[in-house]
Amino acid sequence: MDRFGFSPRRVWLLDGLRSALNELARVGCEQVYLDGSFVTSKSVPGDYDLCWEFTNVRLRELDPVFFDLAAPRARQRAKYRGDLLPNIVEASSGMPFVDFFQVEKDSGGTKGILLIDPRRIT
Predict the structure, then answer these.
(1) Domain range holding 115?
(2) Domains in the chain, number
(3) What are the phi and psi torsion angles at 115 (to 5°)?
(4) Which tens digits make up the pLDDT trace of 23-44?
(5) Where are the alpha helices (DSSP H) in 1-122?
(6) For the chain, does the N or the C end have fewer beta carbons within 10 angstroms?
(7) Average predicted confidence (pLDDT) for the chain
């Protein structure tokens, strides 16, 4: 993860991302997908987009901010500095978020995303 912290803005976002990953690890989450300008070479990304899998997650113990999904997700961005979405169906596309994240917005082509096991983040 440290390779993404090459600007002050990125370090700030990375701190929020680490907090979100620690919270997800605490409740048993095993897989998250990272997307957005944060995973590009852009030096000043706006935020990061994270999608998390439900499998083995103790949902009742998870910070309620993770369930505040109404746009613009201000509480999520204030606390964790990014968008935190469960892998449910994205409304406008009808695709699960993990698939939606892999579509390039301008061309409609495919793109890569990062798969992270939050339990392995230190």
Answers:
(1) 2-120
(2) 1
(3) -100, 130
(4) 999 999 999 999 877 777 777 7
(5) 8-26, 74-80, 97-100
(6) C
(7) 90
